[in-house]
Design brief:
Radius of gyration: 17 Å
Number of strands: 0
Low-confidence stretches: none
Mean pLDDT: 88
Shape: elongated
Oligomer: single chain
Structural class: mainly alpha
Distance between the termini: 18 Å
Order of helices and strands: HHHHHH
């Protein structure tokens, strides 16, 4: 598996940034100018984006694109999407949860398509 999946702390930070607020506050600077953001704000923003229904709708669209390509797809991308799905599915709500569940179904279809191809 690629090294990008091994950094558990990174994924924990994006999944549950509130658990690291004390650590992130350490990097807060008081003299931010307008339009500048501290690390804590950036981490929380990225986390919120990854928990948003629009994000999961885009991921679902990517899965549809992968399915339409047959077996000519990037397997690392599929593994990455599956890792994201596994990481976030338990904490999502509403339309984001629904789209993530649809991603789960698409990932299974992609894996089945690959198995059936004999490769």
């Amino acid at each position: 598996m690629s090294n990008m999946f091994r950094y558990e702390f990174f994924w924990d930070l994006l999944t549950y940034p509130e658990n690291y607020d004390d650590e992130l506050d350490y990097y807060r600077t008081e003299d931010l100018e307008e339009g500048e953001y501290c690390l804590k704000d950036i981490v929380h923003q990225v986390s919120n984006l990854a928990k948003d229904d629009i994000f999961w709708s885009v991921v679902l669209s990517v899965c549809d694109d992968i399915l339409s390509k047959g077996n000519s797809f990037d397997k690392d991308l599929v593994r990455f999407i599956e890792m994201l799905k596994n990481r976030f599915i338990g904490i999502l709500n509403g339309n984001a949860k629904k789209a993530c569940c649809q991603v789960n179904t698409k990932i299974e279809a992609i894996k089945e398509q690959f198995r059936n191809s004999g490769k």
